[in-house]
Design goal:
The protein is α/β, with parallel strands linked by helices. The protein contains 17 helices and 13 strands. The chain folds into three domains: 218 residues, Rossmann fold (3-Layer(aba) Sandwich), CATH 3.40.50; 76 residues, Tyrosyl-Transfer RNA Synthetase; 69 residues, Structural Genomics Hypothetical 15.5 Kd Protein In mrcA-pckA Intergenic Region, Chain A (Roll). Keywords: Aminoacyl-tRNA synthetase, ATP-binding, Cytoplasm, Ligase, Nucleotide-binding, Protein biosynthesis, RNA-binding. Homodimer.
């Protein structure tokens, strides 16, 4: 994506101590870009010398009610900076959500209603607090300063940025060339996100790599308003369980931070051995030295599954607790041996003798009888521990333990 002009660093006025260099290293760990690095180093040096914490901003639009661990990549970075003593601002974009972020999209995204935004925002901060330290986090809503702008203020804000610079965005320019509609309100999104930085007087704004343009707009607007411009730090987008697509709830390749511990643990174990190291880099709180040592051990012959278990237990512990992580590991090992979990859903059905396809559908173990047949063809269905190979199987009255794949179980009581 074409960006506004790259920022130029200014030399620091305060001493660059070992503590400042350490803070710089922590800032850069796992990041995609830190712009401009010299300015951030100068800000860190000033903060260390004066004792005045820097203001670190992260904005999230409540477009869905839940956060997955892909979102926590930037939250982890916020926590690292929070641990250095800086002020973390968790900004809920209740105003910008009504516009709809066009970043990386080739069509207009329908804006959310106020009711949808409020419903989603209720859970956002609670879930983010599983990563951030709530006692050291400032929570804000951008409607606080965006609503009072009014028509006059919006016009004055829009006058501070040109259409030519807005059209430098690849998603806008490509849609324009293709004749795909671009609504005028979409230009307001990067402007309003940038105005958030002005309102909050932020020193650093974080975001995914797809947010770089918007973050730089904030820097430009701060200059227009006579403020010291923020630095920007972008974090890589985390691929989902498939190892290809960006983690997304709509793609079904996500790990939700409110997932059951057993599911969370098993999902982490399902990622590829290669992708595991990116997950370590972006999600683990272990030191880079410890991760490098572990990788060297795996390269030297240690079973990569052992490293993956370490990661799975760390993540499960973070969002639940150590006891839940231990139990999840035991559950995973039990299932791997063909065992049945201690707690499985109880389902009561009628209609015996009932076809196996209908049973799987009615027990919510398969979305349709067609999918049930596909699962049976792939040897993915067991009844009382035995693999089902006959799609015409009919079960009479009784109690059955039905398993689909490794993680889906149900104890089905089937009546006539």
């Amino acid at each position: 994506m074409t960006q506004p002009a790259e920022p130029v660093s200014t030399p620091p006025k305060y001493p660059i101590t070992d503590q400042v260099l350490e803070a710089m290293a922590i800032s850069k760990r796992g990041c995609d870009e830190l712009l401009p690095e010299g300015d951030w180093l100068a800000k860190l040096a000033r903060s260390h010398a004066t004792g005045v914490p820097l203001r670190i901003k992260l904005g999230l639009d409540p477009t869905a009610p839940d956060i997955h661990i892909g979102h926590t990549v930037v939250l982890n970075k916020m926590r690292q900076l929070q641990n250095l003593g800086h002020t973390v601002i968790f900004l809920i974009g209740d105003f910008t959500s009504m516009i709809g972020d066009p970043s990386g999209r080739n069509t207009t995204r329908p804006p959310l209603t106020r009711e949808q935004i409020e419903a989603n925002a209720q859970t956002y901060y609670k879930q983010a607090s599983l990563v951030l330290d709530p006692s050291k986090t400032e929570i804000r809503y951008n409607s606080e300063w965006s609503d009072p702008l009014g028509a006059r203020g919006m016009i004055q804000l829009a006058a501070k940025y040109t259409v030519a610079r807005m059209m430098e965005r690849n998603d806008f320019s490509e849609r324009f060339k293709a004749g795909t509609p671009i609504s005028v309100h979409e230009f307001l999104y990067p402007l309003m996100q940038g105005y958030d930085s002005v309102a909050l007087k932020s020193d650093l704004e974080l975001g995914g790599t797809d947010q770089k343009f918007n973050l730089l707009v904030g820097r430009a607007l701060q200059t227009e308003y006579g403020q010291e411009p923020q630095c920007i730090l972008t974090m890589p987008l985390l691929e989902g369980l498939d190892g290809v697509e960006k983690m997304s709830k709509s793609k079904g390749n996500y790990i939700g931070i409110t997932d059951h511990p057993n599911d969370m643990f098993a999902k982490v174990l399902s990622i590829s051995d290669e992708m595991m190291w990116k997950y370590f880099k972006l999600l683990s709180w272990q030191s880079e030295a410890d991760i490098a040592k572990l990788k060297a051990e795996v390269d030297g012959g240690r079973n990569p599954k052992e490293a993956k278990v370490i990661l799975a237990k760390e993540i499960t512990t973070r969002f639940h607790d150590a006891a839940a992580a231990d139990a999840a590991e035991a559950d995973f090992n039990n299932r791997a041996r063909g065992g049945i979990p201690d707690e499985i859903p109880e389902v009561s059905l009628t209609g015996a003798p009932l076809g196996i396809g209908q049973l799987l559908k009615q027990a919510n173990l398969a979305p349709s009888t067609t999918e049930a047949g596909r699962l049976i063809d792939g040897n993915g269905v067991r009844v009382d521990g035995s693999v089902v190979s006959d799609k015409a199987l009919r079960l009479g009255p009784g109690v059955y333990v039905v398993q689909v794949g490794r993680r889906k179980f149900a104890r089905v009581t089937l009546g006539s």
